[in-house]
Design goal:
seven-stranded parallel beta sheet, 17 strands, 23% helix, 27% strand, binds zinc ion
């Protein structure tokens, strides 16, 4: 995107804020309360918006906003949010009457290295089902293959992408097969992984490791130890995303090893009584202790990692997720549990989490974790114009978890339109017809 000199000078805060973007590499970065640089001339009385999303109910947790609002977009940014904006002020209009309008969803756990990872899917092709404008790849690429992911996927995709680099050189290139990527510990070269993470810190959030018996074999805690070490070397901003499942050691030991800012994914998986964060009906003390320390808990639904009989008691006992992610991949997407992010969010509505919180856990909260894009996960003026529009469909609905438990709900989110940096996916096609 070209910045016009006039646009920068036109806003007194623009120069300072532009400097802030260039240096935004810390873990902070939530949208709330930030003053964002405007890339258009707001004072122009004849300003024509590129696109107007009209008639919807905006649910934007970053502004504590849940009200009828029109949303105007200009030059890839949210330009205005107001009770009524005349259609004549926009080149194109999308009628969101009766629908809800949220920041574009942010999915913290996905698999996107299609045709290289055994389970990767192309994010843009899924847009109509996922409403996900920002996605985080959870270790499809190892440190040996991340340059390819960066070039061939991040560089060729409209969806805004980030990734965790796998502590195993081969990442998930061979998954699903019988030989887990951490059966051979020599694939976990700490310095090589740290180098890849550090070199790609604009798009890499840290190190991925899968702590399941069928992945690590007899290597026990060593893959996690090496993942943490690689992240430490790369810098204090680098996180570890740790998959939990049928743990090679008692689950509590894994939780105790994690650092503030690290992420447990598959938080409500149930691989047996000693392998879930709920044991004997109670949330593990080590899980509460990890959360007190600042460890984050992510859903990562997937094809085998979300169980209502773990999630329901956890939520009742005050242990909701920090972030709700899908773990959508080529196997899970075909399972009856349908781990598409809007559907996973709807499952949490059925568990009693209010709509605003559910949306926050797939917008504001993962945006804070990504911490690299000012305004991400928000519809405040100046934020990137990433927008999702949903029908909130009322009526009885049945959900299934990955262990075939059923749960009834009253409502679900049905995605009907997704916009990335001002450009809609599908109709109305951008005018002029160019892609970002
Ligand atoms: Zn996954």
């Amino acid at each position: 995107m070209t910045l016009s000199r006039r646009g920068l000078i036109g806003s007194g805060v623009a120069a300072a804020a532009a400097t802030k973007i260039a240096g935004a590499e810390t873990r902070a970065g939530s949208a709330a309360g930030e003053t964002l640089p405007l890339l258009f001339d707001r004072s122009d009385p004849n300003l024509k918006f590129d696109l107007l999303v009209t008639g919807g109910t905006v649910v934007d947790p970053s502004q504590k906003l849940h009200a009828h609002r029109d949303v105007a977009i200009k030059n890839g940014q949210i330009a205005a949010v107001a009770e009524s904006i005349p259609a004549a002020r926009a080149v194109q209009v999308f009628d969101a009457g009766g629908a809800i309008v949220t920041p574009g969803l942010i999915d913290l756990h996905c698999h996107y290295y299609h045709q290289v990872s055994g389970i990767g899917l192309p994010p843009d092709e899924m847009m109509g089902l996922t409403a996900t404008t920002t996605g985080v790849d959870a270790g499809d690429a190892g440190y040996a293959s991340f340059p390819g992911f960066r070039h061939h996927v991040i560089g060729q995709t409209r969806t805004r992408l980030f990734g965790f680099i796998h502590i195993s050189a081969i990442g998930l290139a061979g998954n699903p097969i019988k030989v887990g990527e951490m059966m051979n510990i020599d694939y976990a070269d700490v310095d090589a992984c740290a180098k890849a993470v550090a070199e790609n810190r604009d798009v890499c959030l840290g190190v991925k490791v899968r702590m399941s018996k069928n992945v690590v074999g007899s290597n026990g805690m060593e893959p996690l130890r090496r993942a943490i070490r690689a992240a430490q070397i790369a810098g204090p901003w680098a996180r570890v995303m740790c998959h939990i499942g049928n743990a090679p050691v008692p689950l509590g030991e894994v939780l105790e090893a994690l650092r503030p800012g690290d992420i447990v994914t598959h938080a409500y998986s149930n691989a047996g009584e000693t392998n879930a964060i709920v044991a004997g009906g109670k949330v593990l003390p080590q899980a509460f202790e990890a959360r007190r320390r600042g460890v984050l808990f992510d859903v990562g639904h997937g094809g085998g990692s979300f169980d209502f009989t773990v999630a329901a008691p956890a939520l009742e006992q005050g242990f909701p997720p920090d972030t709700i992610s899908s773990d959508v991949h080529s196997v899970s997407i075909q399972s009856p549990s349908k781990p598409l992010l809007p559907w996973v969010l709807s499952k949490f509505l059925s568990l009693g989490l209010p709509l605003e919180q559910v949306i926050a856990k797939a917008t504001t909260e993962p945006a804070r974790i990504i911490g690299r894009v000012p305004g991400l996960g928000s519809l405040q003026v100046g934020a990137p114009a990433d927008v999702a529009v949903f029908k909130l469909v009322e009526g009885p609905v049945a959900f299934v978890d990955t262990n075939k438990h059923e749960r009834r709900g009253n409502v679900y989110l049905d995605p009907i339109k997704t916009i990335r940096q001002g450009r809609p996916f599908g109709f109305p096609f951008p005018d002029p017809f160019t892609y970002t």
